[in-house]
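Subject: Sanity check before I submit

Could someone independently write out the structure tokens for this chain? I want to compare against mine line by line before I put it in a report. The sequence has 265 residues.
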Amino acid sequence: MADFIYQEPYPIQADKTEYRLLTKDYVKVVECDGRKILKVDPKGLELLAKEAYADVSFYLRASHLQKLANILKDPEATDNDKFVAYTMLLNQCVAAEGQLPTCQDTGTAICIGHKGEDVYTGVNDAECISRGVYETYKERNLRYSQVVPFTMIEEKNSATNLPAQIDIYAGKPGMEYEFLFITKGGGSANKTFLYQQTKALLNEKSLITRAIISAVAIFTNSAGCTLILPNSNHALAPFTLTPKAKQAKRSSIPTIYAGYANMWK
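---
Independent answer below. Compare away.
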């Protein structure tokens, strides 16, 4: 029998992220029963979340921008490569003004936290982080992406971009509180599907085939319309739906986004 070995999943050998100091307020070290504790004021969590989601929405890291700039100087880059990189840099210059975000789909606010056992806040951390999300989406030019259900078939935009997905893991030794802030776009509220398949399908050919030339699948969206994904004969033709007749019809515009339907054409 093999010896027991604990391995932390997805370890980061070296964090090369460049951080900026927000404030020296809201945190202090106190002593309790001979043990040093990092005491975090809830206002600090709100401020951190607020600033983080603004940065994620309007800026790219310097290292990311440098990689885009390197493409422009790469002798092996094609004209199209350089055009895309140049356009992305121009887009980021616009976003950096703080009015128009990097992407118009500003998505679900996701926060993953790792809280050391010697960190004390005295509050519901998720609530404080949610307030930071609320403040950012209220004050900045960001689209509300979240819808909340009223019944099985009725839903409404929350008008706050809440709820956020907040997962905080505790129990790790130390006085560190680590965060990863993410904004997930691409139909963020209710467009996740799980298809359990066999291991035999985990190869490039099968995955591409099933992703683009899938078998006909019929399901009902939250508005009650039936969406039909194209089969192998119509892999490059999207389907649109007419709400009145609710009948699928082929579009005349080819696209590789099979099944990405214009619901109200």
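---
OP: Matches mine. For the report I'm noting this point. Helices lie at 42-58, 62-73, 79-95, 125-139, 204-212.
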